[in-house]
Write a structure and sequence with these properties.
heterodimer, A: 356 residues, alpha+beta, Rossmann fold, OB fold (Dihydrolipoamide Acetyltransferase, E2P), 2 domains, 5-stranded antiparallel β-sheet, 19 strands, 25% helix, elongated, B: 294 residues, mainly alpha, MetI-like fold, 13 helices, flat
């Protein structure tokens, strides 16, 4: 196990700069998720940590040593790829033991380590099969087994669940979490799926256009997004964002929407009267009958999901999503009324997008 | 007179539509074309094999028909002769050396061109590919001079090296295309596992490249097996002649025993035909590799 640190890491392809000085410290045994939309540079950053991409500037430090010039093997990292990247001509056992074979480990030791990892991942009956004879989930487990066998300092996961169907993804997610709890190896996990990041990681780093927007625990990011980008990215369904103006100040501050609707803002928000803002309302915080500001509008869409129902209603001319109990008698066209407590109302500067 | 009242209505479902008629026409056209192409390939082969069973007189009078009396001795005399087997072993030695060197150097060069970026790589590839445009016969005189200067006249190497050189363009082109289409994640995974370029080539690329190895191997084997002009120029001793030069012994100053020439040709091309059929699947897979996304 080891700590990982990035110091002002930059990556450019010719004149095109894709990573703009990212600094990050990951502690020994920590599980960190890098999340962001496609093209934000998260996979590039992971590949730079792995040694598969050259670093234009800055330093990558693993276990207190600068590894910029070291090969992936010398960095003692293991990587699980989105497409599994299993060697098709080798059996499961050969795939898992390949890196040990290359390092000249004696055959009995390889067999023992492979068997140990296979038992951990429930792969024992599959050891003699070729990758083509395995299901998607089994292949992903083999890819993880290949990483475990070498007992690396750091695990790197590059969107490992993206190729799996929804049900299998949930199952594999728990397996990855259990695996991390068992082996405790420092792990860096890249995903564009914020649910995956929230459920797996000790800490999440949100990336956008090659820059870190915010880092923190899943709940910190959820409760206190630093800016509009993070607010919109974390949480599902996404936060409702509405234009507004601050009306009143201090303990009496409220956000006034375009149609005159007023929403109470928590006193600790640093807002000024007349300030142009964006108001963020999480769908799960808009509950009928709860305390706080009452918001009402015509129901535009009803989406039952079983335990919960998503209701899209009109608020100040904008469609706003609310999540209510599955038993709630929602009806298209009917008037929907929900309440939101002042402390759950997020406020962002309209110009800069920074949370206030 | 037709009784209109009893006329049956036309079953619209069973009547062919214009689309079906066009498809049927296309099928007929396709099959006729294929039969013509097949005939162009197969008729000379069968005529050659049958010609070997005829007498010289019958061959002149009836070149394409079945023999009236099957002259098995034309074939058996060749098969039992010592010279035939000596020439076969010469052909085999030359062809196998050619295949081995073409595969070894072609695959290694193509791997570099596929995976390693270095200054002038594209120019170098094009330089090799230019070789595709020139058959060995066009450069036979300078080739002879170079082989003579190397002291390789009348040796197997004198035939093998020019064949390898002239096969390199095709070999590099096919290997490079195939290697470039192997998933790049495999390279990343192997690199993380501790492979360098050589280990990746040996442990991952080569085992995954059996179809293209078979394709290039068969193409260079057949090319060497059928080669006539290079061995003719480079070899002097009859004891080193490969099969294609063996035909010359049936050609006299004033007459040629064509029935023996045909029997001999049939016996020499049989191994390549068998090899082609055995490796047909790999050859087609190798030639079409990367044509579509897998």
């Amino acid at each position: 196990m080891a700590s990982v640190e990035l110091r002002q890491v930059r990556k450019a392809y010719g004149a095109l700069s894709v990573i703009h000085g990212v600094s990050l410290a990951i502690e020994d045994g920590e599980f960190v998720a890098l999340v962001g939309p496609s093209g934000c540079g998260k996979s590039t950053l992971l590949r730079m940590i792995a040694g598969l991409e050259e670093i234009t500037a800055g330093e990558v430090i693993i276990d207190n040593a600068v590894v910029n010039e070291l090969t992936p093997r010398e960095r003692n990292i293991a990587m699980v790829f989105q497409s599994y990247a299993l060697y098709p001509h080798m059996t499961v056992a050969e795939n898992m033991g390949f890196n040990l074979r290359l390092s000249g480990t004696p055959k009995p030791v390889i067999a023992e380590r492979v068997a140990e990892a296979a038992r951990m991942l429930d792969l024992m009956p599959l050891l003699d099969r070729k990758p083509a004879q395995l299901s998607g989930g089994q292949r992903q487990r083999v890819a993880m087994g290949r990483a475990i066998v070498r007992n690396p300092a750091v695990f790197l996961f590059d969107e490992p669940l993206s190729n799996l169907d929804a049900k299998l993804r949930v199952q594999m997610r728990s397996e990855i979490k259990q695996l991390h709890q068992k082996v405790g190896t420092t792990s860096i996990y890249v995903t564009h799926d914020q649910i995956e990041a929230m459920t797996l990681a000790d800490r999440i780093v949100v990336l956008n256009q090659g820059r870190v927007e915010q880092e923190g625990t899943p709940m910190e990011l959820y409760r206190k997004p630093a800016n509009l980008f993070v607010a919109a990215f974390i949480g599902s369904p996404a936060m409702n964002i509405l234009d507004g103006t601050v009306d009143g100040d201090g303990g009496e501050a409220a956000a006034r929407l375009g149609d005159g609707t007023s929403i109470r803002i928590a006193p600790e928000r640093k807002v000024k009267r007349g300030q142009a803002i964006k108001v963020g309302l999480r769908p799960e915080h808009l509950s009928p009958g709860a305390g706080g500001t009452a918001l009402a509008g015509q129901t535009l869409l009803v989406e039952p999901t079983g335990a919960q129902t998503h209701i899209v209603f009109d608020l100040a001319g904008h469609p706003v999503v609310a999540i209510v109990d599955g038993e709630y008698p929602a009806r298209y066209g009917a008037r929907f009324e929900a309440n939101i407590p002042a402390e759950q109302v997020h406020v962002f500067d309209r110009e800069t997008g920074v949370a206030l | 007179m037709t009784d209109i009242s009893t006329a049956q209505p036309i079953d619209a479902a069973s009547a062919p539509t214009s689309g079906q008629r066009i498809r049927a026409g296309t099928q007929v056209y396709m099959y006729v074309s294929l039969i013509i192409v097949a005939a162009i390939v197969v008729v000379p082969l069968i005529s050659t094999a049958l010609g070997g069973f005829k007498t010289l007189g019958e061959l002149r009078g009836n070149p394409f028909g079945l023999p009236t009396e099957w002259q098995w001795s034309n074939y058996t005399d060749i098969i039992v002769s010592k010279r035939y087997w000596l020439q076969m072993s010469n052909s085999l030695i030359i062809a196998l050396l050619t295949v081995f060197l073409t595969l070894t150097f072609g695959a290694m060069a193509a791997f570099c061109f596929a995976h390693i970026r270095f200054f002038g790589a594209d120019y170098l590839v094009n330089y090799f590919l230019i070789g595709l445009m020139f058959p060995a016969a066009t450069a036979i005189l300078p080739l002879y001079i170079r082989i003579r200067d190397l002291g390789l006249i009348d040796t197997y190497w004198g035939v093998v090296l020019p064949q390898v050189a002239f096969g390199m363009g095709m070999s590099i082109m096919l290997f490079r295309n195939y290697f470039r289409n192997l998933p790049s994640e495999l390279f990343d995974a192997a690199f993380v596992d501790g492979c360098g370029y050589m280990r990746f080539f040996w442990h991952i690329t080569l085992p995954l490249s059996r179809p293209i190895i078979a394709t290039v191997g068969i193409i260079s084997f057949v090319g060497s097996w059928n080669s006539y002009i290079v061995p003719l120029i480079m070899l002097n001793s009859e004891s080193r002649y490969p099969w294609p030069l063996g035909i010359m012994i049936y050609r006299g100053e004033f007459s040629t025993e064509w029935q023996l020439v045909l029997a001999f040709i049939t016996l020499t091309i049989l191994p390549t035909i068998i090899a082609f059929f055995l490796a047909q699947k790999h050859i087609i897979a190798g030639l079409t590799a990367g044509a579509v996304k897998s």
